[in-house]
Structures
1.
Amino acid sequence: MIRRRTLLSFAPVVSLAPATALAQTMEVRFGTSTAGGGFAPYAAALVDALKSVDPVLDIKPVITGGATDNADRLQRSDIDIGLVSGEVMYEWLSEHPDKPKLRVISVIYSTPGMFAVRPDTRYHRIRDLVGRPVVWSPRGTGSAVQARYVMQGLGLDIDRDFEPIYPESFADGPTMVIDQRAAALWGSGYRWPGFVALTNQPAGARFIVPTAAEIAQIRAKYPFLAELTVPGGMYPGQYEPLTTVGAWSYILARPDLDDGVGYRLARSLYRAERAAMPSKHTVQTTARNTLAAIGSLDALQPGVVRFYREARLIQ
């Protein structure tokens, strides 16, 4: 975490950059995800938010295979920025310590992970699902990678200790639980589309999260996973808050992204953050959350650091 003394006033910025530079059209290739996951509605909301504050910033969404695919494409410079879950970012950095770093433009949202089951089943704890068919989300997506880390934290293997299902589409998961081809569906994020689809069915759904002891066990093995709470009322029939684990997800930049692009994206994101009516999908995409989530300023794209300093968000 960044030391608290580096966080300064989040007062409005008087002068951020020359108007001529900000009036220029700038194309940015933006890696998103497959349809049906949490990244898909977020990406659409983010593009709309950026266009509303910087109409000539030309964001070009690129449909990809999700977080892992985005990390790989960023390293190859096939895209300029991309959505990557915290779990995938941790894994990518661990597996590629000698490669140029992918830099943070911003956090997007935190991703609490949990299971959903039919309410007429006898499944109430994670251990009840061992040996049962479970939908883990499409391979390589942030949700599937998160599930692997969480289960490993409990000493479980998602492929050996369960009957794993990796659907081609996120949209297939809720249907598999509804028609009882699967016992449970794993998902991550707030208002995750698969959980929305499942809880909107007449029968609804019941959620399963780790116990307090299991959360401690998971975080002892993987400290980058944080304790997160899903507020009550997030889904139909879910009246009480649910405490689980998860991580922040990020907008990452390719290693050689021009600092001017990073600066402009940070500026536009900050303007969108301060808009009167931020989207429900982008409400957690803030400079404050970004600074709280990163380990050091070195994780940020240099253009973002320059904007944050000029905006007096950091020293």
2.
Amino acid sequence: MEVLQLHKWDVSKEEALEIQRMLVKRLKLSPDFDVDEIRLVAGIDVSFLGEQSLAAIVVTSFPELDIVEQEVATVKINFPYIPGLLAFREAPSIIECAKRIKSEPDILLVDGQGIAHPRRFGIACHIGLLLDKPSIGCAKSWLLGEKQGYPPLPPIPNEQGGVAYLSDGKDVVAIALRSAEGKPPIFISPGHRIDLETALKIIKGTIKDGQRLPAPLLFAHNLATERKRGGQKRLFI
């Protein structure tokens, strides 16, 4: 995949905040594609090995969800952990990994937030802009909590497929989806070149029955975990 050079990465916290404020103006929050024409969906996950971040990207067919391609890459961490600035810690390894992917995914699923973010520019937005592809944030936790001054989470139906629309106090920015009965919800928000309802439709189409996470993200998580443990096993032959 081709990666756009939008800014430098050796930055301070203040510079990172300013980059987010600048790039958020470039987001497009409406789909410019036909869902019926989607053929490849990529899952992107990042793990950590000491002073290195390890990115895994797994490309799957859609709607079959068979693995088509997979890559990993490690990069030295040069930015501290700061809530809301995850991309500056994780994106460099994602970029390196994306450069090794030969196929061209139609959709990117990113483990993290999209516009459900204090500056409406989570890592899924950042990666979508960098790779110039439609992107969806799919997170396992909710960033805009009551402790940060945001509205409380509404009730989320317990049955599989139950949804709740989530606000940042001004607009609806995410959907909580009960992807599997008896398991915690996942939090879906648009990243780039997509809207919320289309993101939900695609996420539902990538979840296998009984699983909490979309298959491409689960594959990427498993690949990153395998490499983190020192294994070289791939997910398919």
3.
Amino acid sequence: MSIRTNLEHIRERIALAAARAGRDPSEITLVAVSKTKPCEAIREAVSAGATILGENRVQEAESKIAELHDLPAVWHLIGHLQTNKANKAVLLFDLIHSVDSPRLVEAVNRAAQSIGTRQAILLQVNIAGEEQKFGIAPGEFEHLLDYALAVPAVEVKGLMVMPPFSENPEEARPYFRALRDLAARYTNELGNRPELSMGMTGDFEVAIEEGSTMVRIGTAIFGAR
């Protein structure tokens, strides 16, 4: 199937999942994950209506964004950000999904201050406590949130999670629910409708049922890597 057909199918599934949860599908942002994909495929996706593109690596994204500067799209960083790449990330991305330490918050804050802007971020939480995954431990989340709210050039928009991999999307549900519940405990700081970046190709419908506002979908749009 074409990228256009894939996008139409994904939007239909988003709408159905939202309906099951009694939600408005317009509440859910689709991030088309374009990592490792060639610029021709990205152009096709944008022409089919993808307006937000997600990249994993700053260096890969930098060359793509330069080549595709004419496209009516914005770029999100969904992969881990190294502190020494913060300056470039702030120049390239509208939203960084993967901030997970005070040190990284400070690096992003300094980078944004240096160009006179505020950088929108999400705080990545390692709900499952997986050693091989990035993200702040739930027990340290409050400290990270307080730190991020205190710096002047960072704007905390919400939270992000990556649950343990499973072939069964239902196994991700408790982790999505836990992130939603964590956000709900901090409504004074995050507001009543924080962004919740959760759900990928294999489990985005369950994520929407549990309150996701941003789904990160690559394979179901662009095909397997």
4.
Amino acid sequence: MQKTLTNRALVVSIHDVSPLTLQKTEQILDDLKKIGCASTSLLVIPDHHRRARISKNATFAEWLRTRVAVGHEPVLHGYYHLREQQEADGVFKKMVTQSYTASEGEFFDLSETEALARLKTGMSEFTACGVAAAGFIAPAWLLGDDAERAVRDLVFEYTTRIATVGDFTTGTVHQARSLVWSVRAPWRRVCSLAWNRLLALTLRNAPLLRVGIHPPDWDHAAIRDQILNLTSAALAVRRAMTYQQWLASTRGQE
């Protein structure tokens, strides 16, 4: 029986895509394809932790071009995906940049000049791989005001935060909370399973359902199974698409 889809959408995004996570990303994409999700947004890190420049890895560059050719979207995801601890960090900054995001909130407090330089270099890395990004998403969704001005200056079409999708083309900020899992400790995994089960129920009638996947999620069977089960259930009533496709479909409807 053919599925009847509503005008509701599903965007599955895979974070932290790089040469360092390529094998795990392939596993995720293969598992998603088996349940009928063949279109995702791939959040690519140009130089993951200063150890994996994508332009210097021919295998990764070819893989990325191939994925884009079959319908996946490349998204610029920071540059290093790393924020070194600073002596001047206060309690709040330490809580946000270390406890919350394990020192990966790269664009949390960059100056506009610093952000602009990293964005331009990141775009050059994408160009060297033969792809281009319409969107920029900061690591851990932590995008400071100065850094956001740099993103806007470079004419990216959109960014996302954990609870919103911001369309720079129309100026619209869409409310859309993302499902996302934290797996760094057993208590985090237990809480994530309970929270995302409840959140999926809460968002079942939302125009857009977002599912954010990180490669380490696939190291934990309970997390992996919940992600696949929730995604499969969503596909029964939603159309899978990329962020760029979804935003294009919303323009002119406001």
